[in-house]
Design goal:
The protein is mainly β. It is built from 1 helix and 6 strands, in the order βββββαβ.
């Protein structure tokens, strides 16, 4: 099963999360419009014990703006390193 076109150049779009000082990456194939999201961050404020989806909303906006189809999501940090 081929997920991405091997004859085109993949685009890697980093999105920086200021609070966690980490990047979420959207990797996409401009020909097939398939994409993968790597290391998506869920905002968590431990002082107020609340979450928000600001970064996830940025990822969805990028996917929508570029007409991309999400094929894979990968979390490389399944457990908190804090």
């Amino acid at each position: 099963m081929e997920y991405m076109n091997t004859e085109s150049t993949l685009i890697v779009h980093p999105i920086f999360d200021q609070d966690s000082h980490t990047f979420t990456y959207v990797v996409s194939d401009p020909v097939t419009k398939k994409s993968a999201v790597i290391d998506s961050v869920l905002e968590y404020n431990h002082k107020n014990v609340v979450t928000d989806t600001e970064l996830a909303d940025q990822v969805v906006a990028y996917l929508t703006e570029h007409g991309l189809k999400l094929s894979l999501g990968k979390d490389c940090w399944p457990k908190s390193h804090w």
